[in-house]
Amino acid sequence: MKIYFAGSIRGGEGNKALFKQIIDQLRKYGEVVGGEHADEVILSNLKGGLGDEHIYNRDSKRLDGADVLVAEVTTPSLGVGYEIGIATQQNKKILTLFKEDKDKKLSAMISGSPKLTNKTYNTFEDIKKILEDFLS
């Protein structure tokens, strides 16, 4: 199974350690594509420049080839929302992970979509269980 991981890169730099943990957990279920902002293994496999057009083309191709999209959506991101929209149009299986926080609300376009599996979490242990239930 090819799993595309998405998370806020430019706005979510503080989430890098969490994203790395998620990617490591996802590897138990298949090949992870995307998420190089948090993972040195994927980053080391990149070739060429990392301009915006390069990133768009690379990630679009990876998303097209993925079976599943897993997105951490706590930090709002236009790019992640765009990827979720594309995956929805491609009828991919999609999981979103949102950290419970009384001061934050998940976008209604995400939480209201019947095509997405939306899960909230408090701890990484919660994420592990969610991933197991979704990907097994």
TrEMBL record:
Keywords: Glycosidase, Hydrolase, Nucleotide metabolism
Superkingdom, taxonomy of origin: Bacteria
InterPro entries named in the record: 2'-dNMP_N-hydrolase (IPR051239), DNPH1 (IPR028607), Nucleoside_deoxyribTrfase (IPR007710)
EC primary class: hydrolase
BP terms from Gene Ontology: deoxyribonucleoside monophosphate catabolic process; nucleoside metabolic process; nucleotide metabolic process
Reaction it catalyzes: a pyrimidine 2'-deoxyribonucleoside 5'-phosphate + H2O = a pyrimidine nucleobase + 2-deoxy-D-ribose 5-phosphate; a purine 2'-deoxyribonucleoside 5'-phosphate + H2O = a purine nucleobase + 2-deoxy-D-ribose 5-phosphate; 5-hydroxymethyl-dUMP + H2O = 5-hydroxymethyluracil + 2-deoxy-D-ribose 5-phosphate
Record: residues binding substrate: 83, 107-109
GO MF: 5-hydroxymethyl-dUMP N-hydrolase activity
SUPFAM superfamilies: N-(deoxy)ribosyltransferase-like
Quaternary structure note: Monomer and homodimer.
Protein family (similarity comment): Belongs to the 2'-deoxynucleoside 5'-phosphate N-hydrolase 1 family.
Matches recorded under PANTHER family: 2'-DEOXYNUCLEOSIDE 5'-PHOSPHATE N-HYDROLASE 1
Protein name as catalogued: Putative 2'-deoxynucleoside 5'-phosphate N-hydrolase 1
Source organism per UniProt: Candidatus Beckwithbacteria bacterium GW2011_GWB1_47_15
